[in-house]
């Protein structure tokens, strides 16, 4: 897929002002401090899958206790217990917690996992949800899967988004992952599930955006884009999320049953509700984390998978319509 064909670009509905959308995601980040042997923050946790032991100690002694345990690279202290954790780690893996007095930290000199690349923050999509999705599920933190799986999360403008990266020839690819604890039924009970991962890919060439890939479970399609062009808010793709399936699309719905772009709410591609004209739920300030369980990036993926409608209308032409250059 390194050599991509050019597809007809689409217009999108009115967007929030670009200046607002480009606010730094760091505003919601944890405040890190430095001690003699660690970097730590208050009110945070690390995934429990990394646990290698625990000990009852004072909070101020937790990092020292971690330093005396073979393989301990990071730690969490909560309610009188220091939890030792092993493996490569970065501060991007930490997440906020409401546990009273919780502290998390990374030992100095610990082998670090890659941090989120600056370009991944610059090109992170703006995710628009259906105006009526208030009782549906929104992105959640998959690092807390043991307690969040099977549950719906409330909407947050700064919800976690996970990212992985790969190099495909001259392209740098970022794969953004939104995780949902639960997926609602698309029609008559069909499609209901838990632990739902959905993806959007951004392809860069020479530091500029070139392609965006939109995933709907096992389906996907790619569109050629450019900064400031149709379907973009500056450098950031605008992605419409299906209300029930959480599939990603470049085009929203009108909410008008007499319109060609009205979504019927069924299980077929393009049918899921995604009317976001009122902008009630716009995930525009996500907190990015390195994906702890990334899905592989296929450099030779097809331009469009089977199953998308072949009707040559404005919505579906991203896959089968008349292709045009810029």
From TrEMBL:
<feature type="signal peptide">
    <location>
        <begin position="1"/>
        <end position="29"/>
    </location>
</feature>
<protein>
    <recommendedName>
        <fullName>Apple domain-containing protein</fullName>
    </recommendedName>
</protein>
<keyword id="KW-0732">Signal</keyword>
């Amino acid at each position: 897929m390194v050599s991509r064909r050019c597809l007809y670009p689409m217009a999108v509905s009115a967007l929030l002002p670009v200046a607002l959308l480009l606010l730094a995601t760091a505003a919601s980040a944890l405040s890190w401090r430095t001690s003699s042997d660690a970097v730590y923050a208050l009110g945070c946790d690390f995934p429990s899958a990394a646990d290698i032991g625990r000990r009852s100690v004072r909070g101020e002694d937790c990092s020292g206790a971690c330093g005396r345990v073979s393989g301990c690279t990071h730690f969490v202290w909560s309610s009188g217990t220091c939890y030792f954790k092993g493996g490569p780690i970065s501060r991007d893996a930490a997440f906020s917690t409401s546990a009273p007095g919780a502290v998390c930290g990374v030992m100095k000199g610990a082998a670090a996992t890659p941090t989120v690349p600056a370009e991944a923050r610059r090109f992170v999509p703006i995710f628009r949800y259906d105006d009526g999705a208030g009782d549906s599920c929104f992105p959640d933190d998959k690092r807390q899967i043991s307690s969040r799986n099977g549950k719906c999360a409330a909407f947050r403008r700064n919800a976690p988004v996970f990212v992985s990266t790969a190099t495909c020839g001259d392209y740098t690819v970022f794969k953004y992952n939104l995780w949902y604890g639960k997926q609602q039924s698309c029609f008559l009970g069909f499609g209901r599930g838990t632990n739902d991962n959905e993806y959007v890919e951004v392809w860069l060439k020479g530091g500029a955006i070139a392609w965006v890939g939109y995933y709907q479970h096992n389906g996907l399609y790619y569109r050629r884009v450019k900064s400031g062009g149709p379907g973009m808010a500056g450098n950031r793709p605008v992605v419409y999320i299906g209300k029930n399936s959480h599939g990603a699309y470049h085009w929203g719905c009108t909410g008008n049953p007499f319109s060609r772009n009205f979504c019927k709410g069924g299980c077929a591609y393009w049918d899921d509700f995604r009317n976001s004209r009122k902008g009630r739920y716009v995930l525009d300030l996500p907190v990015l984390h390195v994906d702890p369980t990334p899905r592989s990036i296929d450099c030779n993926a097809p331009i469009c998978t089977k199953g998308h409608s072949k009707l040559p209308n404005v919505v579906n032409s991203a896959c089968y319509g008349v292709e045009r250059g810029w």
